Amino acid sequence: MIAPGDQTAVRKQSSAQSPDQLHDPFTVMCIDDNISLIDALESRLALEAGFAGMLRAEPLTEAVAYASKHSPTVVLLDYDLPNGLDALQVLQRIAQEAPASRVILFTGYPNRQLIADSMSLGAWGFVSKGTETDRLISAIHRVRHGEAVVELDA
Amino acid sequence: MIDGRAVLAPSSPSRFDTYTDHSMSKTPHAPSTLKTKELERAELEHGRLAVIGAITSGLGHDLRNAIMPALLRLDTLTATASLSDATRRELHEVRSSLSMLQGLASGLHLLASDAELPAVATRNTELHRWWHDVKPLVHAATAAGTTVESHVPNSLPTVTAPPNLLAQILLALVLHARECMQGSESPQLRVTAVKTKGGATVTLEFFARTHDGTIADLGKRTTSLTAPIESMSGMTLDNLKLLLAEHGGNLTQVECAADGGVFTIELAAGAQLNISRSDALSARVELTDLRQRAVVQLVLAQCGYSHSTSTTHNEASNPPSVIVCDSASVQGVLDSLSSDEANGSPNLIVIGTSPLIPLKAAHVTWIAPTQLGLLASALP
């Protein structure tokens, strides 16, 4: 397991956030085998006010236990997990074992059935990997402030 | 798989027709043996093309995994205040290129995915989004110098044909036309999509002029689509029509003039997202679970409902078309309804498990919390 990293980058105010949301600390856990994506997302989120760190589950098979222990504000869960891991099962278990965490399913190619299934199993949001990066960041903020989101391709 | 249909085009000469297998016996085969061997070869080719398609589709998927981090890094870099204007311009150009690559990756995935897989075949297509994905591929597939004009507005309804199949049909037509338009003067492709009573129609208009009559072949080629083209499979016009018909669509060649060809693809409307309703539908949401409430509000908004809660509902306004509540609040909601309302209007959807004693109210639909994705289909 890797603890939340120290964020040294200067955090700037996001134009999408209202003043009362700026001091609301949040953490994001990214369950994905694409380390490059997690690193880049962490750097980008470091610009957002209130971002308190990126949580990473290593190995991915321990993701549910890690989410249960640390209760990240938002969990970004890749649909295409390696080694036969079933993302929808992971989603369901996180919804049960870390109910305070809000899960966004993150996938390359969404379809209507998958959106419906993920919402049934406890997801707060659904974001395509083809979406604009601003919309991904916005989706994280909207979910942490109580809104369900579906963001498809640009 | 786009090329998987090759075996369904018996009129297409096999690429193996010119293949010389030196290991084969020189002894003449009986007709049945020859036929078996030909079928085996066709099967092998089918399998080979299926693998190529699967790999290509996977590449399109993986490209996105590489592009998203690059775009995020660019965002982070651009937020650095110390950058010069020139550097910012450069970064802007890099972002534009990456966005284009992202579109190509989407188009590649659409083109190469098997449109018959159950998970894919049941997908509907939002045409505006679909065109965004396939446009880069269409540009790349047209003859050199072709002007591509398009009008695919985002007000079009969702259609029942899967996006992969539509991409494959479009590219098949474009690639066949390309061969005929190559070297012609001012080749043009116009793609227009309009809303119709039953869904939408996409019209493809190919125009090209030559001095030597080459373009006359365009009509012939696009009519039969049977000639073997190195870059394409045997997706004949008949096969394309058949595939589209399975999804309620219709492919027609409207016109075949000497200098161009016009095709229309009629598509049936499917389940809608972001419906613009002329009649004002409203909903009241009485849910205590934050996630359920958020998801229900999202679904309602996407299905064209305005929504309120008990705290924001204006008693003086018209009663809502539907009330969505949970097991804990359902009795209170029923008690608050007038007798007329309780007898049928508004519709009531309860997120919870069905009670042993049925509620005395018409139009009550129960949806288990673990089946929340069914809400859209339960709405009146």
Shape of chain B: extended
Relative strand content of chain A: 15-25%
Order of helices and strands of chain A: HEHEHEHEHEHE
The N- to C-terminal Cα distance of chain B equals: 38 Å
Please state the average pLDDT score of chain A. 83
Low-pLDDT parts of chain B are 1-26, 213-217, 220-233, 272-278
What is the ordering of alpha helices and beta strands of chain B?
Answer: HHHEHEEHEEHHEEEHEEHHEEH
Structural class of chain A: alpha/beta
For the biggest β-sheet of chain B, the strand order reads 2-4-5-7-6
Task: Please give the count of helices of chain B.
Answer: 11
Number of strands of chain A: 6
**Which of globular, elongated, flat, extended, rod-shaped describes the shape of chain A?**
globular
**Contiguous runs where pLDDT drops below 50 for at least 5 residues of chain A:** 1-17
Largest sheet of chain B: 5 strands, mixed
Give the mean pLDDT of chain B. Answer: 72
CA radius of gyration of chain B: 27 Å
| Percent in helix of chain A | 25-40%
Oligomer: heterodimer
How large is the radius of gyration of chain A?
Answer: 14 Å
**Sheet of most strands of chain A:** 6 strands, parallel
Q: How do the strands and helices of this protein lay out in sequence?
A:
The complex is a heterodimer of chains A (154) and B (380).
Chain A lengths: L18 H4 L3 E6 L3 H11 L5 E6 L6 H8 L3 E5 L8 H11 L4 E6 L4 H9 L4 E4 L4 H12 L4 E3 L3
Parallel strand pairs in A: 1-2, 1-3, 3-4, 4-5, 5-6
Helix pairs in contact in A: 3-4
Chain B lengths: L30 H48 L6 H28 L5 H4 L3 E2 H15 L5 E5 L6 E2 L3 H19 L3 E11 L3 E11 L6 H9 L12 H9 L4 E6 L4 E9 L12 E6 L3 H13 L2 E5 L12 E5 L3 H7 L2 H4 L4 E5 L12 E4 L7 H4 L2
Parallel strand pairs in B: 2-4, 8-9, 8-10, 10-11, 11-12
Antiparallel strand pairs in B: 1-3, 4-5, 5-7, 6-7
Helix pairs in contact in B: 1-2, 2-4, 2-5, 4-5, 5-6
